[in-house]
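Morning. Coffee machine broken again, so started the prediction first thing and wrote up yesterday's gels while waiting. Chain of 217 residues, entered below exactly as on the submission form.
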Amino acid sequence: MREISSQPGFKREIQEGRLNVVVFRSGQKFDMLGLDNYFGGLFYVINDGDEKWWEFSILKTHEVFQTDPLSLQFFNWMAETDFKLFDDYKRIIFDNTREILESIPTELAPESGKEVCICDFDVGVLSPFIDIKIALKDDVQNLEFRMWVEKRFMELFISEDKLFYRRGSFGFPHANITWIEPKLRINPGLDPSENKIYAKFFAELAEKVRELEEQSA
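Came back before lunch.
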């Protein structure tokens, strides 16, 4: 690659056509642009016109690879309007997560060596998930407790006629739960009316923890 100036932002190189940056952003779920642990990152293709990039170059010049007018209209619409929708989508989930975390009982606050607790975040962190650590020393008791937690969460949502998912990801419009050992990860959805279900669930979970502590005392 030819020498690139140290001028911030590479403005000159871009204007002269020496630097071409292509950023791929998925519209599948908001988490694909750096918020998901498995797909967390931006992908860059830098083309300086060298022959070795011929496969990328023909995408812009060869007729067979050109975008049809209908798709072009869609991509233009996405670029002009949908980024704001993505941001709104994320903001609602972040707000719901923050509100839910504010309802966590003190019994579930994270402490060193605690077997059951809700993982917290630094002030100002925007999170689309809530992790419940469940690591009881007794394996049988641990399994039974985990089964109760998962079952009770689903029962409460069903009792309110609310939809939920059980998939290994997040960014969905509805609540989602998945196990990431030794934690149950809860991903709030878009509906803020569901936040009261979480508050009830965590209140029952705190009561369950108190019962375990009394039994082991």
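The chain has two domains: 8-66, 92-216. Going to sketch it on the whiteboard this afternoon.
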